[in-house]
Design a protein that fits this description.
GPI-anchor; globular; 213 residues; membrane; glycoprotein; Coagulation Factor XIII, Chain A, domain 1; single chain; mainly beta; BIM1-like; nine-stranded mixed beta sheet
């Protein structure tokens, strides 16, 4: 009985949230303030302890509690407001609840060597939601996805032809776009579906799918 109560309480805690940016770690999460642009009312402080993000390849991990979502990923090297965010990939549509991960995002090459901010926006059933992470952009690529980058069973996602969500966030540019669909493929390996032909800014990247949480 106690175990059942604890499981119920844990599920209730997760379901009360909208989404949580797990990697890179969010600058701050306030469920009630997550609808506030540009970063869910979080204070962004970038310093030497902020995680390194390789511009040629990096992963983003999210815990999602809504059955559907539309995701926009942006980045900037402006660490003071007003931020000048650049769209780094096309909009991603998702279906399913739980963890999901994009292991092969990339930022503009000229971001390398600079402090910056990653912004994630979800056009959810509850409206537009915002999370941000302070990062340090570096050269190279991170090809090691790791155990933190996984997807819930039954989770599906697809790249869209939309370059940007309609938001009030400041944007300086957009990525080229091409549609590709990702579905659950495996419960034991880091399978990826590569979305190629997305332009020089984005290049070839994949959506990791099918791993059990």
């Amino acid at each position: 009985m106690l175990r059942k109560i604890l499981i119920t309480l844990g599920a209730a805690s997760i379901s009360s949230a909208h989404f949580i940016l797990q990697w890179p770690p969010t600058a701050g999460f306030d469920d009630e303030a997550e609808s506030k642009s540009p970063c869910g009312d979080a204070t962004i402080t970038v310093n030497s302890s902020s995680p390194e993000v390789q511009v040629s390849q990096f992963a983003v991990s999210i815990k999602n509690t809504h059955p559907t979502g539309q995701w926009q990923f942006r980045a900037t090297t402006d660490t003071q407001e007003p931020y000048n965010f650049t769209d780094i990939v096309p909009v991603v549509n998702s279906t399913g609840i739980g963890d999901f991960c994009l292991p092969n995002l990339r930022a503009p090459d000229d971001f390398a060597g600079k402090a910056g901010i990653l912004q994630v926006i979800d056009n959810s059933p509850d409206g537009l939601l915002y999370q941000c992470a302070p990062v340090n952009f570096v050269t190279g690529s991170n090809s090691t996805v790791g155990s933190a980058c996984m997807n819930a069973t039954g989770f599906t996602a697809s790249w869209t032809t939309e370059e940007s969500l309609s938001t009030n966030a400041t944007t300086s540019g957009t990525a080229s776009s091409s549609a590709a669909t990702a579905t659950k493929t495996s419960s034991s390996s880091a399978d990826a579906v590569t979305a190629a032909g997305l332009g020089s800014l984005v290049g070839a990247f994949g959506l990791l799918v099918g791993l059990l949480v």
